[in-house]
Amino acid sequence: MDRFPPEGKISFRDDDSKGGISATKDNADQELIEAYSINPYVMVEISRHRTSARMCYNLVDAELGNEAEEEIGELRKALLKALGEIPVSIDRKNIEINLRKEIEKYFLEREKSVSRESMDHLQYLFTREFMGYGKIDPIMNDSNIEDISCDGVNIPIYVYHKKYQNMKTNVKFDSDRELNNFAVLLAQKGNKQISISDPILDATSPEGNRINATFGNEVTPRGGTFSIRLFKHTPLTPIDLVVTETASSELMAYLWLAIGHGKNIIITGGTGVGKTSTLNAISLFIPPSSKIVSIEDTKEINIPHRNWIAAVTRTGVGEGKFVSGKSAGEIDMFDLLMSSLRQRPDYMLVGEVRGKEAYNLFQAMTMGQTTLTTMHAESVENMITRLENQPLNIPRTMIPSINIVVKESIVRIGGTSNRRITDVSEIGQMDPDTNEITFNTIFAWDQSKDMLVMTGESVFLEGLMDDFRQRNEIISFLAEHNMGGYSELWKYLIKYSLDSEKAYSELAGGRKREGGPDA
Predict the structure, then answer these.
(1) 114 secondary structure, DSSP code
(2) Domain 238-316+328-513: which topology?
(3) 308: which of 193, 292, 403, 514 fits an S-S bond (Cβ 3.0–4.6 Å)?
């Protein structure tokens, strides 16, 4: 490698003359708000339009050394030819090693000296092109981004930034062919297909991100589209929900007890409010030794339990349909639910209740099957209405098998959008005189204080207040001391499940040593 002497500091482009993604040129209308690096070769510039106050997200590529820049087209052809001969079964690490060898071989055969810095840069560029997500790969690796949306050809891609919310980017797809090829790439990464005959894609990427895409202008007249919801590699924990003020320590203690006592819980809310993330987080409260089965359309649930079967639906093949309405080989939520019930799990996690499988799920709940799930509904009343009508058709007598309803929302606080659990209710029995289903709101969000407060008396907590207070102290302590790391919390929950008093005493001892209140 000594034949590639290092060069000086990498510089970043401020124009697109060399084909890279570039920042918007400085002018009187743009105010730079923040800049940060994603990796040594790409940085992000966040700017605000002075007149409209519109926020912009700009990717800026580092300049490549001139000696390598001129060769990039021919080098791509050589690499495509060489990599095409590598068996598909070889893992990414080995492909990267082969990629580096081929890049070096290309320049050696032409007796051209290329710096080590340019060599590393080329490896990054072709790794992101051949094995990553091409021009949006840097955005995929920006930990601040939660959602990436493409609305069509020659339309700027939009992102949802944790700090700045929705923003237009300086990235776009320039042709139908380029965008359609990218949709096919997304389908391949999700082990699915997308085409003119089947133009809608719903899949999960190898990294666990949720992908929705359309092909061509079959269903979207402005060309193909895609939306990628990015999920953290390390899932949120109940402590994370408290630290971010999505929930309170009291609520997490309440749900900890409820899950341990086999209560059925449904998390409701609109699209993108964080229902699945919350479901995943509170699933950590399921006793470690439990047998769990999860069923989803796209894989999003990720838990550390060992005795866990994760089931995902599968699309069929061919265009023909059977009498059932399904294609050959199709496996839907109903199929997975029936299979799951035969496995006699202690807990079932259902990604979302929305189809014919709901009736069987509620039958199982009425017979004692503990279930945690989500549903699109804006209130308890709205949830009941949805359950009773098409396509769910749940008899009203079955609905009280749901014990607890947790509603999550996106609310405006100080001009910014934030996720909050806004109310939690216990479902009662059906009134025999009025035929109405009663419910009691236990927690409600106080907008003036931005705080989730306990507003009602819980029927469930009767006789469990000592356990509730103890768990509330534990959650509060862990949140205050930033001890909510995924592995760290899981180890503590295992310890607590084996000997709750010993685990609590150890934590209480730590509080005393730090001068905190006595346990």
Answers:
(1) -
(2) Rossmann fold (3.40.50)
(3) 292
Write down the CATH number for the domain with range 132-231: 3.30.450.380
Element (DSSP H or E) covering residue 161: strand 158-161
CA–CA separation, 337 vs 350, rounded Å? 9
pLDDT in tens, 260-275: 999 999 999 998 899 9
Contacts of 138 (CB under 8 A, 6+ apart): 21, 38, 39, 42, 44, 59, 128
| CA neighbor of 36 nearest in space, from 142, 169, 153 | 142
Nearest to 127 by CA among 173, 172, 167, 79: 79
Structure tokens at 344: 């006699």
CATH 3.30.450.380 holds for 1-112 = yes
Q: Do 1-112 and 238-316+328-513 come out as alike in CATH topology? A: no
DSSP string, 379-421: SHHHHHHHHHSTTT---GGGGGG--EEEEEEEEEETTEEEEEE
Q: 331 to each of 7, 166, 315, 326, 334, how far by Cα in Å?
A: 55, 36, 6, 8, 8
Sign of CA dihedral 421, 426, 431, 437: positive
Phi then psi for 52, rounded to 5 degrees? -90, -15
Q: Rounded CA gap, 127 and 134, in Å?
A: 9
Instruction: Look up residue 77 and give its two tokens.
Output: 């052809």
Residues 6+ apart with CB under 8 A from 70: none
**pLDDT(126) > 60:** yes
**Strand order from edge to edge, sheet including 145-150:** 30-39, 42-49, 55-61, 165-169, 158-161, 145-150, 225-229, 210-214, 200-204
Nearest to 282 by CA among 264, 307, 306, 299: 264
The residue ranges of DSSP E strands in 290-415, in sequence order, are: 292-296, 308-312, 347-350, 370-376, 404-413
Domain spans in the chain, listed from the N-terminal domain onward:
1-112, 132-231, 238-316+328-513
Mean pLDDT, rounded, of the chain: 87
Nearest to 62 by CA among 102, 113, 122, 2: 122
pLDDT tens figures, 390-437: 999 999 999 999 999 999 999 988 878 889 999 999 999 888 888 899
Phi, psi torsion values for 438, nearest 5 degrees? -90, 150
